[in-house]
Design goal:
With about 500 residues, the chain is mainly β. The chain contains two helices and 36 strands.
């Protein structure tokens, strides 16, 4: 039996009283769904919520009705052993599940079309295979798709013998192959990196290339790599950095205006402190630079953003989280203050996160401290680690790369050995972006702060656990409607899901 709670809050502002209501519906849990399970919120089809779950070699999909009652639990018995890297692409009345598995020395990349009842519409089809050497990395396939979901790309990257070997397979939304291509170039894994693989609605593949002068240095070279859907060649566009240094690069495709947006924090000297934001906008239609802008971030913003220490170090632990494109070609950028330390050892710093491949990546990319995926407790090492997720910095950037306004949402979060209850998520509703995050270490109170197009921040009613024992993981939530979010939560060490209607 599900639990439905109607939460009614009255908030007092400087203005007169305003009324805000939230409806929270929490699913039951299954005994086997402990915190060791992996899950992925597929989304909503025909008013049903679908959630994929996996523990070891067991794969299943839970189907919930609008009140989060479990309609059915579908066991995915057709999935072979040694299956990994499962991705979902959701459509109004069906979804694709794309997965890879290993049999012997052969990797198989497969796809299956499924309906709202999680039943196969078609038998699994093989998209590609790869023979891999013994003891080599086997998670080589990745899936990306366009914003309108009309283009799907499967690509694989192998970096052996100082070569970057990339193969791309572009499909339409019926999984009909449009183009297959291979790209092979020289590669120095200590100084070069490729990242941010995105697919435009027009089928163009875009990703970034960065180069460092030395190991663990900041990058002093940056470029865009672009492949047209029917061309077999890749084009490289150098981005001028004016003798400045960068590290973490984030890419976003503006499909409405046919542009590519690149953002990164920049430095005046190698391994110095962050000076500001560099924005580069590429006009894809005309094949030329639309905007290139270095924006120094001033002391007033630094003073508001910092949690401790000197102003010049205030931004050094901020990582770019999201780029939300506006209709006119401008965008909202969010960044979060993130640090961690091993208990009893030296703290990690920014360079450890960005240039230490020890962690969660497949071996092809540098470690990103913000994955957006659920991590079972203490699953990667036996050392005690404390994670800190603090203030959120919000920048509104114009279509020419100019800073319109900046704001800081204040929060202070930490936990030992687990990140799933920390950080934040966003929900776009009308002209506002809502920031959702836990307010305290009990994880039963979720703050909701909305920011409008002009930068006005409004505090909404907090979302509270209606019963002791429920703890929310808002950073792993997924928006499934104009005013609906699915937020994973735990109850007595079991995973369940809350549907929140705002």
């Amino acid at each position: 039996m599900n639990r439905i709670y109607h939460l009614l809050f009255v908030l007092l502002f400087v203005a007169p009283l305003s009324l805000c209501a939230q409806t929270v519906t929490i699913s039951d849990y299954e005994r086997e769904d402990t915190r060791d399970i992996n899950f992925d919120i597929i989304g909503k089809i025909n008013n049903h919520i679908l959630v994929y779950k996996n523990i070891r070699s067991n794969h299943k999909i839970n189907i919930f009705d609008k009140d989060m009652n479990t309609l059915e639990t579908v066991r995915l018995d057709f999935i072979p052993e040694r299956t990994f890297n499962i991705d979902f692409i959701l459509y109004p009345d069906f979804f694709y599940m794309i997965y890879q598995y290993q049999k012997g020395s052969i990797l198989h990349c497969m796809a299956v079309k499924m309906n709202a009842q999680a039943q196969k519409i078609t038998d699994p089809v093989e998209l590609d295979t790869t023979r891999i050497p013994v003891m080599s990395e086997n998670k080589i396939y990745s899936t990306i798709y366009s914003e309108d979901r009309k283009k799907i790309m499967i690509f694989k990257i192998q970096t052996r013998y100082q070569k970057f070997n990339m193969q791309t397979l572009l499909f339409d939304d019926a999984l009909k192959l449009i183009n297959k291509n291979r790209h092979l170039i020289d590669y120095n894994e200590r100084k070069e990196s490729y990242d941010n693989f995105l697919l435009g609605n027009d089928g163009y593949l875009v990703f970034t290339y960065a180069k460092q002068s030395g190991n663990r240095d900041n990058s002093d070279g940056l470029g865009l790599v672009i492949k047209a859907p029917l061309q077999n060649s890749f084009s490289y566009q150098d981005i001028e950095l004016n003798e400045k240094y960068i590290d973490e690069v984030k890419l976003k495709i503006d499909n409405r205006n046919n542009r590519v947006i690149v953002n990164t924090f920049y430095y005046q000297k190698n391994r110095g402190s962050i000076e500001g934001l560099f924005t580069f906008i590429w006009d894809k239609a005309n094949g030329k630079t639309y905007a290139s802008q270095f924006t120094a971030l001033n002391d007033s913003l630094r003073a508001e953003a910092k949690t401790s220490g000197l102003l010049r170090f205030a931004l050094d632990e901020f990582f770019i989280r999201q780029i939300i494109v506006k209709a006119d070609g401008g965008f909202i950028l969010t960044a979060e203050d993130f640090t961690s330390d091993k208990r009893g050892n030296n703290d990690f710093n920014r360079y450890d996160y960005l240039y230490n491949p020890y962690a969660l990546s497949s071996g092809n990319y540098y470690y990103n401290p913000y994955t957006g995926y659920y991590r079972p407790l203490n699953s990667y090492n036996n050392q005690s680690i404390r994670y800190y997720y603090d203030n959120i910095m919000i920048l509104s950037i114009s279509k020419t790369g100019q800073l319109d306004w900046s704001k800081v949402v204040h929060k202070s979060q930490f936990d030992d050995n687990e990140e799933n209850f920390l950080s934040f998520s966003t929900m776009t509703s009308g002209s506002e972006i809502h920031f959702l995050f836990n307010e305290d270490r009990k994880y039963q109170v979720v703050s909701d702060q909305g920011i409008s197009a002009d930068g006005t921040i409004k505090r909404y009613a907090t979302l509270k656990s209606p019963q002791k024992g429920y703890e929310f993981m808002p950073s792993l939530s997924k928006q499934v409607g104009s005013n609906q979010m699915i937020i994973p939560c735990t109850y007595r060490n079991n995973i369940c899901f809350a549907k929140v209607e705002f």
